[in-house]
Amino acid sequence: LTSMGVASAEAKVSTPDSSVQQDSLVSMTDVFLISLIVGLFTYWFFFRKKKEEVPELPKMQPVAAPVARDSSFIEKMKKTGRNIVVFYGSQTGTAEEFANRLAKDAHRYGLRGMAADPEEYDLSDLSQLSEIDKSLAVFCMATYGEGDPTDNAQDFYDWLQEADADLSGLRFAVFGLGNKTYEHFNAMGKYVDKRLEELGAQRIFELGLGDDDGNLEEDFITWREQFWPAVCEHFGVEATGEESSIRQYELVVLKDVNMNKVYTGEMGRLKSYENQKPPFDAKNPFLARVTENRKLNEGGERHLMHLELDISNSKIRYESGDHVAVYPANDSSLVNQIGEILGTDLDTVMSLNNLDEESNKKHPFPCPTSYRTALTYYLDITNPPRTNVLYELAQYAMDTSEQERLRKMASSAAEGKALYLTWVVEARRNILAILQDMPSLRPPIDHLCELLPRLQARYYSIASSSKVHPNSIHICAVTVEYETKAGRLNKGVATNWLKNKVPNENGSSSLVPMYVRKSQFRLPFKPSTPVIMIGPGTGIAPFIGFIQERAWLKQQGKEVGETVLYYGCRHEREDYLYREELAHFQKEGVLTQLNVAFSRDQAEKVYVQHLLKKNKENIWKLLSEGNAHIYVCGDARNMARDVQNTFYEIVAEFGSMSQPQAVDYVKKLMTKGRYSLDVWS
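User: That's the sequence. What structure does it adopt?
Assistant: Structure tokens below.
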């Protein structure tokens, strides 16, 4: 650029004395050179500029900034003056409930807490929490399935695995929710606790391990009563002595309301049941029509049933081994009785609005709605209420002895815990039973609705193959009905509701809100791989789907390996489920072995594990030579454990291994996906 400027200046100052020829020659040469250089520079300049601007063309990056700000729990805490955040990984609502209770506790110590769903926030912001004075992150983490995170904690779990963040300023505590009958007890709680420490965070109180097979509520209370003193000591604060009940929601009764704007049972979008739009999931279930509902057992006191749900035109896809979730409704007679006892018009339309305007959770359930709808579709009225509910309700008991009894059961005293265990948990007293047994306890219905937990979806192993039934999902279930220690008849919510779903009837009587939850319970990739399936009772459900799929593969000309089933029931002539179907599959050569244990048809009880021992040589051959995959479905507390112990014995005997080596062998099968569990307690 400098030389060009000099040449140009020189050309302009040529004197008139110079000869015309020389002047003309110089000018023409200069003009040519200058034009060439200017042309090249211009081309280079614009070409270079365009290349530089390419990455800047999509000016969309700034749009992401507000999203990040909205999803920052740090900014929210600063804005609302909070210093404790309680994250929850929850599948059935219990961890969320515990998180809300801890967040509410904070005010008693001069602190302010908020419960938070990790799915809604960017957890990498944890490194900035130390910017807030007396800040603390608490994690209430449930473990789902076989050591997995809950759906809403999956992203957080993935981040923890990959993160190399420096969390040295973070103070934390973890309470895990698990079940000891499962192989990977409290795996998620243990992992979060360990990983946060590895990333430099400071644990201010020990990991709590709640066991749902025992008394989860007591485990939580015991941990909580030691947790808060540790918080006080760490931050140098004291309890304020405020134990008063603090309402989280305010009641707004709606008089002249447009009924088209009132929720009638929908889980998410208003009118979503009238105007169905895929994709269908937990917040947007599909209304499937029941096309078949037949009793499976021929005798006995129980009612075992097979249902078929029509998923035509839903775009729902499923694989054998997946789970179907259904949203049930509470028994209308229970709902009516609560309304009568509390002297309430259940058809009153109302809304419970969060007093914390900054909260992401505006209502405890979809609002506006009626009390009838809330108690029927949204609230759990059949499970024994937790101690926090009893504590909040105590203020409404007019009889001092009843008030004291409720407060005692909600306390952390040993006597109170024992009373809660016997009078509420073991007696299976639900909220209606408590109201009936305490005549002076008459809380406002809106506060009761605020306190009761959400009614949860129920999961069932799908009893069909999508290869054979692409437009239908099959369920195998047993109705739950039992007499409590207090002499009341309690009925399972979902199974009794499903029992009454009659096919081919118009209206809602045959409709079931449902969605599919993916599972890791999968057939081997190669159809030629042998499978050993163990599923007594309704645990046979996924194996009906597996066998259907193996039959379909065989029809397609695929080489299908040995398909071995170990099934068990009480009596051959009473509750032998899918007898005809299994006989047909065996006749067709798809089901190569059918081993059935009838536990009560003889003096000594015979279970599936006894048949496994009987055929131990064949089992070992399939495992060691055929690389067979093992599948276990059903009761986790006894059956699954007994079956696993039997495999330890078989492996030790035929593999010439010690007990620890055999255990390690089976654990490795699990790690490799060759030993899969679909169990419940």
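Residues 20-53 form the longest helix (34 residues).
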